Amino acid sequence: MPRALGDRRRLRDGALAALVHVAACSVALAGLTAWTGTGGAGSPARMTVTEGRVLLPSAGVAETAAFFHMANRGGSADSLIRVTSRDVPGGITLARHRMNDGNGAYRAAVDAVGIPAGDSLAMSPRGVDLTVSAPTGKRSWSPGDLVPFTLEFRRSGRVRVLAVVARPGSFSFQ
Q: How far apart are CA 24 and CA 62, in angstroms?
């Protein structure tokens, strides 16, 4: 009889040990199900682009800067990889301002700019911006003109947006 009692005790202890693992897995599965159901898990990147501004170029200067506010409302990170515009006669360069060892600032062209899930990026003269070639002659820009841009993101695809031409100093960067 004592042997049967020992077998039952081992069986009961083994069942309890397994029950702990089953309970932990059930709690984890319930949490993941709730997270997925609310759209938090695995949702794609969703980029919105607003507040487009192009600085009015100075007389005789061929290039100027453009700025946008980009927000990623999705659950995955995304990257701005290219910007085009049919109204920009030359190329558009994505650039980031950096500091060198001598505390001097310089601009460096970059291939992409990442925007984490649920985060945003406001372009500014002190961070990321676009260098654009301004049209000349009859096609030159005036304050208030709208310039169409297409921002291409690695995951979200293309986002078309208008940027207003503004005089330097007529708007602030936050």
A: 64
Contact 83, 152 (CB under 8 A): yes
Question: Judging by beta carbons within 10 Å of its beta carbon (0-12, 13-18, 19+), is residue 117 exposed, middle or buried?
Answer: middle
The amino acid sitting at 149 is F
State yes or no: pLDDT of 96 exceeds 80. Answer: yes
Give the SS3 label for residue 74.
coil
Q: Which residues contact 81 (CB under 8 A, 6 or more apart)?
A: 111, 112, 152, 153, 154
Least confident of 8-12, 39-43, 56-60, 90-94: 39-43
| Residue 121 near residue 69 (C-beta atoms within 8 A) | yes
Radius of gyration of the chain (CA): 28
Q: Please state whether the predicted TM-score (pTM) of the whole model is above 0.85.
A: no
